[in-house]
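Morning!

This is the sequence you dropped in the shared folder:
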Amino acid sequence: MTSKTILITGCSSGIGLDTARRLKSLGWTVFASCRTQADCDARQAEGFAAPQLDYEDPASIARCAEDVLAQTGGNLDAVFHNGAYALPGPLEDIPAQGMRAQFEANFLGWHDLNRQLIPVMRRAGAGCILFNSSVLGIVGMKYRGPYVATKFALEGYADVLRMEMAETGIQVVLIEPGPIETDFRKNAIKQFEKWVDWQKSPRRAQYEATLLDLLKKGGSSGVQWPASAVTDAVVKALTARRPKARYRVTTPTHLMAVARRLLPTRALDWVLSKG
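The structure's back. Tokens below.
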């Protein structure tokens, strides 16, 4: 019996790597893509097929899709869009080019890859497209504006795609994690240092007093769930006869979904400003 096939993006560490390892152990043929060739080489050393894919590089997206489909004989059972990063900071200090880069990496590149893969799933009359969203696709929080914007866009995109694919046999699933133990914060600091000229900001005094420390620590410390919590949700979605539209992972995600539904906007603003 031929094993099922999945392309997972962002497999250098964290959620993508954990999911790739779990599905491989369950008998899936996993294409564990990474942004850098060095990380792809590390995955290949583990026994994965690991095509290079950078969502900000359309040529790499096309090469990755072509490579995967060539190795599978033109078939693919699932794709898990996971590769993403955050650009933290007050929105007034985020340059337009930084915002564009965030959308290329977290949203537009995902759409580009879908356009390469959906025709294959359509012909098969089956497939599953999973998106790793976030609690920040449900509620917004200060100083995370670019990331929040991409995840809100992704939530709407997935809802529309799910409806449009309803008659094709293709399932569309959102995974919505809260705080997960990954290198996400470390990578976000690099983006902040790349794009935000805080010394020229009208908030310079605030940066020096509290904001730099807040951005680098990621807010108040609290419980973080292991990456395996997200993998559990992905496995449930992939093995369900009819997967749910959304899988909420971690207590904060469930709480914020309820708060979004029940609280007036100003009350929700107040709650979120304390986080």
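Headline: The chain has ten helices and six strands.

More detail when I'm at my desk.
O.
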